[in-house]
Amino acid sequence: MSPLLAGLLQLLALVAALALAYRPLGDHMARVYTSTRHLRAERWIYRAIGADPSAEMRWPAYLRAVLALSLVGVLLLYALQRAQGALPGSLGFHSIDPDQAFNTAASFVTNTNWQSYAGEQAMGPLVQTGGLAVQNFVSAAVGMAVAIALVRGFARSRTGELGNFWTDLVRGTVRVLLPISVVGALVLVACGAIQNFAGVHAVGQFMGGAQQWSGGAVASQEAIKELGTNGGGYFNANSAHPFENPTPLSNLFEVFLILLIPTALTRTFGRMTGSVKQGYAILATMAAIWLGFTALMMWTEFAHRGPAFEIAGGAMEGKETRFGVAGSSIFAVATTLTSTGAVNSFHSSYTGFGGGITMLGMQLGEIAPGGVGSGLYGMLVMAVIAVFIAGLMVGRTPEYLGKKIGVRQIKLAACYLLVTPALVLGLTAAAMALPTPGDSMTNAGPHGFSEILYAYTSAANNNGSAFAGLAADTPWFNTTLGIAMLLGRFLPIVLVLALAGSLAEQRSVPATTGTLSTQKPLFSGVLVATILIVTGLTYFPALALGPLAEGLAS
Amino acid sequence: MSTLTDPRTPPQAPRTAHRPAEERVGAGVFDPGLLVRSLPDAVRKLDPRVMVKSPVMFVVLTGSVLTTVLAALDPGDGFGWAITGWLWLTTLFANLAEAVAEGRGRAQAETLRRARTDTVARRVLGSGEERVAGTELRVGDLVVCEAGDTVPGDGDVVEGVASVDESAITGESAPVIRESGGDRSAVTGGTKVLSDRVVIRITTKPGETFIDRMIGLVEGAARQRTPNEIALNILLASLTIVFLLAVVTLQPFAVYAGAEQSMIVLTALLVCLIPTTIGALLSAIGIAGMDRLVQRNVLAMSGRAVEAAGDVSTLLLDKTGTITVGNRQAAAFVPVAGVTEEELAGAARLSSLADETPEGRSVVALADELYGPGGGAGAGGAPAGAEWVPFTAQTRMSGVDLDGRRVRKGAARSVTAWVKDRGGSVAQDADALADRIAEAGGTPLLVALEDVHGARVLGVVHLKDVVKEGMRERFGELRRMGIRTVMITGDNPLTAKAVAEEAGVDDFLAEATPEDKMALIKREQAGGKLVAMTGDGTNDAPALAQADVGVAMNTGTSAAKEAGNMVDLDSDPTKLIEIVRIGKQLLITRGALTTFSIANDVAKYFAIIPAMFAVAYPSLDRLNIMRLASPESAILSAVVFNALIIVVLVPLALKGVRYRPAGADAMLRRNLGRYGIGGLIAPFIGIKLIDLLISHIPGIG
To answer: What Pfam families would the database entry show (chain A) (predicted)?
Structure first.
């Protein structure tokens, strides 16, 4: 079987698995977020944190809860890293430097999981499992909660209430993330991923010399790393490491976990707004972009240009032979179109265009299908923009799901549109203009520029993957990337919750034949075009000087 | 049931004929000369304090100033001057678009102003009167107007009746009657009393009269941005900021790449990217939308109302005058057993010859149509010696006595009683026939004859409401647009249902009182729907105010005009349909040009980015898919295209995008194809053509 055919079959299997899980999981999540019953375990949690699970929150209250939880998360994680040297269960690793500890705390709380450290050389099991893995769950549940709040904004009428953040957070964790993670971890263990607290082994090498292997609760962290679109690897090599991702099957399973919740949330969205077709339209938009990007990636990575590629059967530099070009391409696109940022190959080693595709994927705002929760709310904000322009063309004041898109809605959506480009372009420009940050580049020319552009793109969009080659553990990068992650996460959340509040207050307008039908393929097409054109126009000059210049040269 | 005509005089026949559904909502011819005449205004609008209202164009203005300074510092740089010149032209063209739009309204305002000449009012003081300037009148003052006087201000007639020439406002030269009390008491300042004498109570302060407001609206001086326009402006501003970011941050990247760019080139790139096309035309589109209404003699008190018109999902239409012609008409002769239709027609015709009511005339017309002029048995032209029996409210019959024959026609009960009084026989099936007609929503008119054979009922004339021609198609069209039509009538449910079915409206409200109407509006609005209606009477005022789009008839009371947010000077209720179309067209034009403007940017990137960076990275020359001659010509071509496209689109902005009533999907597909795909492709061709031209200029090509 040719590698290309194998790749296509993998893709087919992936789509089939996602399709199978779509309805049950989507419907399950809709029930989770609408049910009035509390599990006993959940009651204990509410009592412990002193939250009233049935109190409805308006958007400012919901936002305060999100921010308070995240602030506590950043502080705890920072303190844990700073104290690592003095705590048990650290394998003797030192405490983390302040700038790196800040960067890592910001990174895991924002669901980014940018890692300026090498896991096996810096973080012991206490921090990894007790700090980082906890945030893997919490940050994912926060994303889902915010998305659900926005969905309620569309679904509810003439109320400012968006639900209860604590309930959404706890239920998302207990009823969605935890069960799937447990199953996921077992599957990964079955595939050969490790799960132990064995510490460090010194192993003699076949060719002489010694190598150090770390053990750890890898499979469990791996499962939530992918499921929660986190991406922070236990090991520096991330999902390229055989302990994390041992076989092509585990590779495909990890991609499945990455895409699982973001896609199924469109069903939840459809269920909660009372029209599953609206959910399908959003899913179709995501799928179109995802499939298009995957096809492009395979095309550019399989394209045989030059004798070295010819022999390897594609651009194999930086890719694991056990995954091949196809398995790596599928993973790379999935990880950058979601906010995952796990890698099973080195994006820096991809062809010029291939590297560009990973960057553009993140620059789209990670909405196809995007991070858990953040993908859905990002896509819905783009839908608001698309509805506004397309809706005018049918001769009505634009409305989406029965809600008028007026001045306030456009103000919030437009600000949302501004946040990440401002962070990415502003900080990249600052890094290029200042004398020292450029020293971190390990390549010259367009590729060196791509390293920095990629870093800020990844941080501001809360992806977390890196264009390997940038020496990012410097105070400048730790600090600015940390700021980019925090602002890139929470400014959009502020805007999304404000939008949700403004929508929930509105009365629903019934649809007529004069209303733009947002559940039809035509609208999905408009949405895809809006996303590609708006993002493309924003980043075209920067991409031209990086991946495009590189890709067109070969 | 009364066979009387609806006591309310039917509104004047619509001046505008029924348009075929496909016809575009026109807006008069665009006169290219207007571009030249509006130039001074366009220059005047370069004032930064005015420009700042449009963030997009303000950025262009700033860019123009910046490049001017830079070009002045390096006067030998021909390319710099060329860019500078075209940036200024871009700014100017934007102002020109607005100036042209305003210029069209100004001519109209001039006509109105002539009507507002300083008048002298005769104010009533106790028993006498004094002469004061019209501007000194206060609300509540009583003034006297006699034949030849100009009405000094807006008010209501409180005493007397007069014919008034309102041509100054409506353009309609036929005088109208204004009388105290009732729904025809409002007079407008600036109109002229032609006959009789009236006393008017002033209801508006000087300077705020109807005519003053009209002038303000037409000139665009009072124009406030509508919510949708504000929202669009915000989106455009944010896109401008995004592109500003993209361009500002480009310089450090360019320096790293070894291709530092001049400020002039960066400014050119910025101006090309920001949505100048829609930014330049946005206010012109709004002004032109109001203008299109004015040309149809509709005054919108706010742009918000015009926008709301596009969103209307329920249309309340009065039956009489809007859906049906004002009166019922004879539709059939239904004879009782033993009588021929021709006999009945002849008798009915005879009885109606002197009947000047529309119903009577329609009976004669129908008989003539069926049996030829003067047709029908027993008929013979206008007979001499006939004694006409006029209709009275007591007898509820009319008819004729001629040569010993007596013919009567009228309400069923009255005619039956008449026949019985004369010892005649009422045919068995007469009642059944009448009932059947009533059930079908018609009005039965019994015809009876007394001659040598005694008195007897001949049959029934079927009177029915006549739905105006083309209404069914119009309602179908509205339905496709997603608008529900509700017919409002004072008729009983049976009649209402029949008319509703024939006209093809979606729903009806029978035996409607003003309270019912109000309740219906509130119910629709509670369901999130926007409601439009017309009205003229004082009792319509609350409903007009409650409706999202309330169109008051100019013939109506000042209370109605005050309550509505539009006034139709022609007093044509069917115009509501056209108003909805204009509202939709306004929004579509905005959306289409926004899409076009954004889609344009793709081509501009393909022109400018290779021009900027092909020197540093030769591989980027592959992006130069238009094969533009040189970097300078590429950038200049993009700037020139960007400026010229504004002028090219001015007529479209003023006329509005072609609009055909259709479902949302069909409309979106068409407009996306034309303005989305078109906007993607057009600049590739345009820029290439301009490049072919200017590459011959030495120093550029």
So the answer is: KdpA (PF03814)
In this complex, is the C-beta atom of A353 within 8 Å of any C-beta atom belonging to chain B? no
Question: What element of type H or E holds B75?
Answer: none
Closest chain B C-alpha to A158 CA, distance in angstroms? 11
- Name the DSSP class of A195: -
Q: Which residues of B517-555 are buried (b: 16+ CB within 10 A; e: fewer)?
A: bbebbeebbeebbbbbbbbbbbbbbbbbbbbbbbbbbbb
Residue found under tokens 């900080």:
A427
Start-to-end C-alpha separation, chain A: 28
Taking each helix axis as running N to C, give the angle between helix B227-248 and helix A407-433, from 0 to 180 degrees, rounded to the nearest 10. 10
* A456-515 residues touching B, CB cutoff 8 A: 507-510, 512-515
In this structure, are residues B92 and B64 in contact, taking their beta carbons and an 8 Å threshold? no
Residues A492/A461, Cβ–Cβ less than 8 Å: no
Closest among B14, B25, B4 to B481, alpha carbons compared: B25
Q: How far apart are CA B388 and CA B399, in angstroms?
A: 6
Structure tokens at B4: 């009387």
Pairing assessment for the beta strands B186-187 and B176-179 based on DSSP bridges: unpaired
Q: How far apart are CA A232 and CA A113, in angstroms?
A: 5
d(CA A304, CA B413): 98
Tokens representing residue A237 in the block: 């090599």
Please compute, for residue B187, the number of CA atoms within 13 A of its CA located in the half-sphere on the CB side: 38
Distance CA B385, CA B383 (A): 6
| Span B237-266, pLDDT tens digits | 999 999 999 999 999 999 999 999 999 999
Query: Does the pLDDT value for residue B22 go beyond 70?
Result: no
| Structural domain spans, chain A | 24-268+288-553
Residue tagged active-site, from B154, B318, B568, B601: B318
Q: What is the mean pLDDT of each run of 10 residues along chain A (554 residues)?
A: 89 97 97 94 94 94 96 95 87 88 94 87 84 93 97 93 96 96 96 87 81 85 94 88 94 97 97 95 97 95 76 83 93 95 92 94 94 96 95 89 93 96 96 90 90 95 89 91 96 97 91 86 95 94 94 84
pLDDT tens by residue, A264-308: 999 999 999 999 999 999 999 999 999 999 999 999 998 867 677
B318 in catalytic set: yes
**Any idea how long chain A is?**
554
Closest CB to A549: pick one of B585, B601, B620: B620
Beta strands in A440-520 (DSSP E): none
Q: How many residues does chain B have?
A: 701
Q: What is the pLDDT of residues B108-160, one digit of tens each?
A: 777 777 666 567 788 888 778 888 887 788 888 888 888 888 888 888 888 88
Question: Under an 8 A CB cutoff, do B249 and A542 touch?
Answer: yes
Please write the tens of the pLDDT for every residue from B646-681: 999 999 998 899 888 788 888 999 999 999 999 999
- Identity at A315, one-letter amino acid code: A
State the amino acid at position A525 in one-letter form: G
pLDDT in tens, B327-379: 778 888 888 888 888 888 888 888 888 777 778 888 888 888 888 776 444 44
Map tokens 């969605």 to a residue: A176
Residues 382-441 on A with a CB inside 8 Å of B are 385, 388-397, 402, 405-407, 409-411, 413-415, 417-418, 421-422, 425-426, 428-430, 432-433, 438
pLDDT value of residue B220: 63
Helix, strand, or coil (residue A389): helix
Helices (H), B318-444: 341-352, 358-371, 412-421, 430-439
Answer yes or no: do B588 and A536 touch at CB < 8 A: no
Tell me how many helices (H) and strands (E) chain A has. Answer: 21, 4
Under a CB-based contact definition with an 8 Å cutoff, are residues A100 and A117 in contact? yes
Decide: A369 and A337 in contact? Cβ < 8 Å.
yes
